Structures are given as C-alpha cells and as structure tokens.
Amino acid sequence: MEITFLGHATLSIKLSEHTILVDPFITGNPMVKDSISLKGLEPDFILLTHAHQDHVLDVEEIAKHGKPTIISNYEIAMHFQEKGCEVHPMNHGGSWTFPFGALKYVQAVHTSSFADGSYGGQPGGFVLSADGKNVYIAGDTALTMDMKLIPMQFKLDLAVLPVGDNFTMGIEDAVVASDFVECDKVLGYHYDTFGYIEIDHKAARETFEKAGKELHLLAIGETLAL
C-alpha cells in the first residue's frame, strides 16, 4: 500500500490492484497550483468523508474519466448519483467488502454541507482494510471518545488524522486520538492550506516524539509506503 499526499485532505492510495482517491480538493488548493493534473488521476474508487467544498470540489471532473465508484454517506452518494456518477452509499457503523478490500464507516464530529448550503448528511471517517493493512482515515473531526471503539475491532497500521486545529482537532488532541485508536504511526493532514490551519511543523513533530509517536507531514506529491 502506498499513500500519496495531494494536499489538504486529499490522498491517493495505491493498492495491489486498485487505486483509491480520498476527498479530492486540488484545483481550489492554492498550495497545489498546477503541480497535479486531474486528468492524471484515474481512481477506481473515491472516498468522501463529508460534503464541504474543500473535500468534494473536484469529484465531478475526476468522475468523468473512468467512472470511479464514489463511496460516502447516503446523502452525498445520492447527490452524486443524481449527477450521473456511480456510487455506493454507507452510513455510520456499516461495513462493506469491495473488490479492493473492506471499509467501515465510522463516526466523525464535524459538520457537512455542500457549497450551496444543502444538507450533506453526517460527516464520517473510514477504516480501510486492504493488502493486509488497516488504515484509519479520520476525516475532519474533533477528538471523540468513539475513537476508542476502533482498536476493539482493528489493529491499525496507520492513523490519518487532521492536525490543523480551528476546524478540526489540533496537534495535542491528535496525540490523544492516536492513544485512543492505539496507533503510534500517524499521517497528519488538513493543515497549512489557509491561514486558520497553519501549523509549526517542527513543534508538531517534537510533540509527537515526546509522546513516543511518529508523525508524518508529507510534502505535496510525497508518498508513504506501508
């Protein structure tokens, strides 16, 4: 499994036989500029944690090429189905086995609405089980006690956690979240894209190191292999 950071909360996950794209927000990200082409992204599946524009902006354009299946909560799935996209709706606590492996849709504490203000269902995260690895993709969330449920079912190899603060949990809460999910290897995301969520990278890494944990803050386009 190879996870490539495409900026903000966008991830490309390359598996043995499939590619998954998470929360595509590329053309609107000033930090990406022209370094990533949507035409070069040909995912088999797209995971959407919630409906905010900085997580779904490029879905329709990417979906024009190759017809990926969009996996999200029921409301988001139906929204994109009406636009002619292939979808698979899920909801909290539900699991499903896909050609690439399995997903469990888990709780996130945040909000969810489309750019026009219409309802985007309840936000969530995913536990991805594929290629012999378990990865928790938290989505935009506060620190929540529900995270303690995850290690009751899964031994995680990686936790992908938001660390930008203000709209989500910050560094200190992310350390606690890694305790809750019992995973000391963390990929941080949802940071630096705009002023509200800028972080001090050195201080963030030191905070994790003091807790005996490993924080990866990847450059855009950089890949972490599991």
UniProtKB/TrEMBL annotation:
Residues 7-190 form the Metallo-beta-lactamase domain. Gene3D superfamilies: Ribonuclease Z/Hydroxyacylglutathione hydrolase-like (3.60.15.10). Keywords: Hydrolase. One of its GO terms (molecular function) is hydrolase activity. PANTHER family: UPF0173 METAL-DEPENDENT HYDROLASE MJ1163, UPF0173 METAL-DEPENDENT HYDROLASE MJ1163-RELATED. HAMAP family: UPF0173. Belongs to the UPF0173 family. This is UPF0173 metal-dependent hydrolase GCM10011361_01080. It comes from Muriicola marianensis. The lineage of its organism: Bacteria, Pseudomonadati, Bacteroidota, Flavobacteriia, Flavobacteriales.
